[in-house]
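Annex B. Sample input.
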Amino acid sequence: MPKFKEWEEEDVDVIDVETHRLIVFNDDVNTFDYVIQTLIDVCEHTPEQAEQCTIIIHYKGKCSVKEGEFDKLLAMRNAICDRGISAEVD
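Annex B, continued. Sample output.
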């Protein structure tokens, strides 16, 4: 007969952090390489991740490139916009 471990219940505090998305939009001005490098520099993407996001931006018109806390994403959005690329925090 197998033995079963008895589970104890305990109360755990959960902090509910609202996550937001950083969305980058396509344009007819910036090159693929420029957008890729921006995502690497600002969002700390790997080159592969940045390239995939850039392809989605190009073909779909936009892409959610990062999720997280509003303040962090707002700083990234500002840095992306300072480079002439359209972005918003959702």
